[in-house]
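User: Hi! I'm working on a homework problem where we have to compare a predicted structure to a textbook description. Could you give me the structure for the chain below?
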Amino acid sequence: MARRRFAAALDTLCIVAGLTAALALRAPAHNVVLNAAPIGNTDVVGMDSRLGRAFILDDGVLAQQVTLSPRGGWDWTGSNSSNTLHVLDTRSGRIIKAINVPTTVHSMVVDAATNRVFAFDQGQLQVIDARDGALLNPVTISAGSDELNDYIDTALVDERTGHLFATLDQQNYGAPSGQHLLLLDGRTGVTLHDLTFPPRPASVTHTSNGGTSIIYGTALSLALDSQAGRLYVFNADRRMSVVDTGSGRILSTRRLPVVLTDAQVDGQSGRIFAFVMSSGPTTRLGAGRWQAPVRTLDMLDPRTGAIHTLASVTGFSDIAVDENDNRVFIPDIARRAVIVLDGASGRILRTVALGLQPFQIVLDEPRHRALVTLAAGYNATTADTHIAMLDTRSGALLRAISTGHPLNNVTIDTGTGHLVTTYDTMGSGQPDDRYGWMPSWLRAHLPWIPAPPPPPPALNANQRIITHTALTLDPS
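Assistant: Happy to help. Predicted structure tokens:
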């Protein structure tokens, strides 16, 4: 009897040892990926580094069937019934809560100073407690008529004053009818001031077939200088208004020679870095690929209105300003590089060649790091994608991390240094099974191993399944 017990124990030990060895062989030497969690289709990711929480707004659909078109794009089928706001722990990358919000919620901003998440609806503001995910009472932010479609374009948080600034674009059956800058209380979401601006200008263009089309100018663009207590508002009519962040009062309005967008302020020098609005459209190359526009980067002195042209840059990305190291980082797709400028003078200090095309830059200022997403091409489906880590003081390339997926939105928790991003995968719909390599007889005897996922749906030759994932990385 004892001999049989010993033999059974030895067999069990061998199985466990073999399983442990197999798992060890499949474990990466450096665990860059902390977690990959399935989510719905998303374009909005927010961060509260004080709490160690990321917030991801998606449509709640984990897998979406699409039909490929002959011109290279695809058509969505089906519709979502609700939006979902996921709360993600940035230390582990695990989703700890999912909150249902109205389907018309389209944008979001996180106020770390007040532990609030503001989700913008059409005419309403959904206020969420970032600590426990509790839904607070919604707040009315617009009293427009039924014919008006109120859309929040941009939202900024000023942690110094505890105020939230949001631009509201009113449209009457698709035609712009007015613009507003709302100053909201950062705790309750109540509107404290409502500043009115002219509607976006319209211009008529002639099409190649002899028809005409109406093109509207860009919505209001904001740049915040929290140290100086100033908010700069850029309109498509070439005007820049200066707003006091405490009182919400317009201090001055100046006419500029160009239309500026994507503006960022260097807090040390007070200089504003912005792109000149491009007059030409983005060119489609087919098969889901687009030719990025060439834009002019300017530096504006808001006190005098003087504008200096710094460089021509190809790409869509925003400008990243590191106020601690007084550096400005601009991704340039054509050069396959990142341009590093001095935040005070605008002088180009260095052009960092990266080999692949850069798209997004996020700053980890406490660690003096800039992280850049790279891919082989815009809308690339290749696995040749990386994250490059730069030293913000010298601009030197420190390392490159392979991600295996073109990344959508990237944000960083400056407390842990962890990145939270999202990516899409198009395929047959076969879900990932990290234990698929395991023999079925062994898997059946290990109750802690999840069961195999169900088989994917049957698809036609031109049909695919798109899935979406929230990815948490430790780039250190």
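For your comparison, note the following. The radius of gyration is 25 Å. Residues 6-11, 13-29, 281-289 have pLDDT under 50 and may be disordered. Good luck with the assignment!
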